[in-house]
Amino acid sequence: MITKIDNSLVSLPPAWMQRIVAGNRPIGTFGEIRKLLGEPVPRLADLNQVPPQIAAMFTRGGVLERIRRKLAAISGKRGRAILPAHQTIAAVDEEDNLYVGVEFLAACQGNEDVIAGILAHEWGHLVSELPRGIDWSHLTWEELFALRREEEAAADAFAGRALFLLGYDVEQLTRFFARLERQRATGMAKRLLGQSPKYHATPVRIAILRQAFAAQQRTADSARKLFPGATYRHPGTTKLLGAG
């Protein structure tokens, strides 16, 4: 089981911040802060208006539910509903609902390794638990964005470890990130990310994923050496796990 990543200084879920001030002057409404430090709740999609193969992914026996069950098994965090959404890759809200973009699912063409990696990244946010009620008024915008980047880095680290435990290929996700970066490199997105980047640079994110995957692999190798006769297989480590 993956224990909660030590993130006492690296996590800043924006939905927990009702007010942020610079000095004594408010610098934005709650909605504005959500857009800057996190993601607004995505617009829901109607499954009756998407291709049947995409709609099938959201069914009880679909790939999204199968991956959710595996993530719940290794993390101890069940999560809540998996909801179809527009104009997002994936996101979670403060109630542990997981939104998955229907356009993203169509673009990745059912690549389960990529889908699992994206869901595992969002699951990293679900298991991140910074205590509530903390006064962040002493932090500057730069410090707030630095914390947000580290929150994303912690989610990437969780995803790398989870992908190994679930039996998926981490390189599929690294290639997806690299392709996404090439797409972002043209147009307005590049300038916006340069002003207030939410993530570390893509090469850093890829390195985090690979190192976390390798670290979990070393742990498994050590366990096999210590217990060479063990035959127990974790219920979350097979892609064929079905939804009961």
Keyword list:
single chain; two-stranded antiparallel sheet; alpha+beta; 244 residues; 6 strands; four-stranded mixed β-sheet; disordered C terminus; 7% strand; 50% helix; globular; 9 helices
Question: What does the model show?
Answer:
The strands form two sheets. The protein has a four-stranded mixed β-sheet. Strands 1-2 form a two-stranded antiparallel sheet. The chain contains nine helices and six strands; from the N terminus they run E-E-H-E-H-H-E-E-E-H-H-H-H-H-H. It has helices at residues 30-37, 52-56, 63-75, 102-107, 112-126, 141-166, 170-184, 188-195, 202-226, and strands at 21-22, 25-26, 43-44, 82-86, 90-92, 98-101. It is α+β, with helices and mostly antiparallel strands and 244 residues long. It is globular. The chain has one domain (14-226).
Q: Helices, strands, pairings?
A:
Blueprint: E1 21-22, E2 25-26, H1 30-37, E3 43-44, H2 52-56, H3 63-75, E4 82-86, E5 90-92, E6 98-101, H4 102-107, H5 112-126, H6 141-166, H7 170-184, H8 188-195, H9 202-226
Parallel strand pairs: 4-6
Antiparallel strand pairs: 1-2, 3-4, 5-6
Helix pairs in contact: 3-5, 5-6, 5-7, 6-9, 7-9
